[in-house]
């Protein structure tokens, strides 16, 4: 498989779209991959139990299944640290009669990294379209867009419809520091959930509960 860069523009959405809604459009959530038809799309959430060079084993609550991660750049660099992490996988069932069912990953949300990795739509194991903004958490409000500036614990997000200030001060970790995998910078595509704070003397700002980085995981080959 070959993956190339994908430019993605998503307008802001004022009503949260839970991952279950995405699953309803794209496949059944936590359906057994061993009962699904070859080539069908499926969503599985669970815990990574082990990894190899290009796969990981997922415990999805009803058993174990191999998730194939061919040519995923972040997995090649960080896959060995995943065991024990909670992830959500969306992908295509590959039911080989001689090898048993596996899942070819199209997107992977890694909770500990705060990042949603997705594949180029030109790939066979990918979304056919992105008419539904990829959303991980339910919140009072969700805004998806590109970071245009950062200052201290705040950043500005441009959704394509409007710009809004996001304050990360109340989050359980600091996504603005230089520690950990998620380090927010100008140009990052993110999805933010939280509450609106409306100050009479200032513009409204979004107090973030979660910030998920949306990353096109590309490998030049």
TrEMBL record:
Residues 144-199 form the DUF5666 domain. The keyword Signal applies. The keyword Membrane does not apply. It holds the Pfam family BOF. Keywords: Signal. Residues 1-23 form the signal peptide. It comes from the Bacteria. This is OB fold (BOF) protein. The lineage of its organism: Bacteria, Pseudomonadati, Pseudomonadota, Gammaproteobacteria, Pseudomonadales.
């Amino acid at each position: 498989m070959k993956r190339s860069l994908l430019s993605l523009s998503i307008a802001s959405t004022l009503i949260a779209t839970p991952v279950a809604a995405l699953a309803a459009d794209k496949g059944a959530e936590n359906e057994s991959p061993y009962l699904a038809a070859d080539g069908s799309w499926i969503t599985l959430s669970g815990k990574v139990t082990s990894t190899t060079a290009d796969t990981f084993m997922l415990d999805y609550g009803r058993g174990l299944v191999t998730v194939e991660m061919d040519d995923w750049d972040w997995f090649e660099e960080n896959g060995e640290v995943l065991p024990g992490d909670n992830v959500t996988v969306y992908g295509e069932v590959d039911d080989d009669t001689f090898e048993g069912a596996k899942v070819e990953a199209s997107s992977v949300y890694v909770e500990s990294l705060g990042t949603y990795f997705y594949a180029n739509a030109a790939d066979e194991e990918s979304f056919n379209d992105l008419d539904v903004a990829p959303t991980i958490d339910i919140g009072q409000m969700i805004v998806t867009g590109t970071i245009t500036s950062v200052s201290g614990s705040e950043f500005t997000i441009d959704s394509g419809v409007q710009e809004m200030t996001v304050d990360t001060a109340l989050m359980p970790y600091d996504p603005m520091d230089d520690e950990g995998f998620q380090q927010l910078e100008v140009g990052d595509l993110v999805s933010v959930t939280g509450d609106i704070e409306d100050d009479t003397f200032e513009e409204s700002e979004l107090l973030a509960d979660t910030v998920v980085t949306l990353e096109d995981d590309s490998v030049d080959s």
